[in-house]
Design goal:
By secondary structure, the protein is of the alpha/beta class. The chain has twelve helices and eleven strands. The strands form five sheets. It has a three-stranded parallel beta sheet. Strands 1-5 form a two-stranded parallel ribbon.
């Protein structure tokens, strides 16, 4: 309740068709959009009737933030179409991408007396957003509270084709627009990309390349999602059959086999690649990188994925400034000299290596009683 207390739902449905999601099956592929007036009235009702309202609408969206009033240009084509997605592998030529009605609602909402800020908390379909730079400008300069959530889900074509998600190039285009309009507004804002681990069709190498991309772009994910076979999702059929159900489903060799990530160890490995910066994951990643023949990614340079050392306390997400490190012997090229006795002229105390002094006053095995 607290998450949706000050949010407004402006539409239902989704024509994205992502295979790991069942929103299309639950709410339909054809977008059902509310009228502009009913949305404005609800914003005013939240302002006047919801206890604790301080002037900020937490979300103005739906299953996807920017599918409001988007749909097929021709009702006849829409009624006959059986494509699972209107935006994969590319945006359908019959799909409207005009964001003007949504921009109008944003502007009207900001003008309502008592409303200080309207944020967009729903996930953004950025491949649609880049079709309307004016919408991206409106969104970035007025409706981002410092962070904007988007979901590339992966960087590699193998898993992306099984997810029915656009290539990472669309993310790069959106980021350019986001950075440009953020700079024009004189603000400091950030994109928060979401990624998924262990999705059907994802190899260990795919996760390794994603981890490299994350480090190259300076991302450290605190929370990550691992694929779970949920009801009615197309990817669930891939998970249980091991076959790419987006193509012809056959029992013989005609069916395209899909790499299904099963077992606790491998699922943990894929999740560990997303959290490559967590020292608790480094031992597992070192072992995997050696097995994959990519020991070149293990080292202490900026171009390496994980270091050779291991913090003695690996409970946190990173090493602290004065934290002690335990060097792994197998990763050291030269032998570390063993500790020797004190050198001539070196003074030892009980704090620097000298054992406790034996005076002979205490009996063997006796202990002092506590006061």
């Amino acid at each position: 309740w607290e998450m949706i207390r000050f949010s407004i739902n402006i539409m239902r449905g989704c024509f994205g068709g992502c295979t790991f999601c069942s929103i299309t099956e639950h709410e339909g592929r054809i977008i059902q959009s509310r009228s502009e007036e009913s949305i404005i009235r609800e914003i005013e009702d939240v302002r006047d009737k919801v206890q604790g309202f301080t002037g900020t609408i937490s979300d103005l969206g739906g299953p996807t933030a920017n599918m409001y009033r988007l749909g097929c240009r021709t009702p006849e084509i829409e009624a006959a179409c059986r494509k699972p997605s209107c935006v994969y592998p590319g945006i359908c030529q019959n799909l409207t991408t005009n964001h003007d009605p949504l921009i109008k609602i944003y502007r009207r909402g900001r003008e309502i007396k008592g409303v200080k800020k309207i944020l967009i908390g729903s996930g953004l379909r950025y491949d649609l957003a880049i079709q309307s730079p004016e919408y991206v400008k409106e969104l970035v300069q007025h409706h981002v509270g410092g962070y904007l959530k988007i979901a590339p889900e992966h960087t590699e074509s193998g898993p992306l084709t099984k997810m029915m998600k656009p290539g990472i190039g669309n993310y790069d285009k959106f980021k350019q627009l986001f950075d440009k309009f953020t700079a024009e507004a004189g603000k400091k804002q950030f994109l928060i990309p979401y990624f998924i681990a262990a999705h059907p069709g994802t190899s260990d190498e795919d996760m390794m390349h994603l981890a490299i991309w994350l480090k190259k772009n300076g991302f450290r994910a605190d929370q990550v999602q691992t694929f779970y076979p949920s009801t009615m999702a197309t990817a669930t059929a891939m998970y249980h059959t091991g076959i790419n159900t987006l193509k012809g489903v056959h029992r013989d060799e005609r069916g395209e086999k899909v790499d299904v990530v099963r077992g606790e160890k491998r699922r943990r490995l894929h999740k560990a690649f997303l959290r490559y910066h967590d020292p608790a994951n480094w031992p597992l990643l070192r072992e995997a990188l050696k097995t994959m023949g990519r020991a070149d990614l293990i080292g202490n340079g900026k171009h390496h994925l994980i270091p050779t050392f291991q913090p003695m306390n690996t409970g946190g997400c990173g090493a602290r400034k004065n934290e002690k490190f335990l060097t792994i012997p197998s990763m050291v090229s030269e032998k570390v000299p063993a500790k020797t006795g004190p050198k001539p002229g070196q003074t030892l105390t009980q704090h620097t290596g000298l054992p406790p002094r034996v005076t002979g006053n205490a009996r063997p095995g006796s202990k002092k009683k506590p006061r």
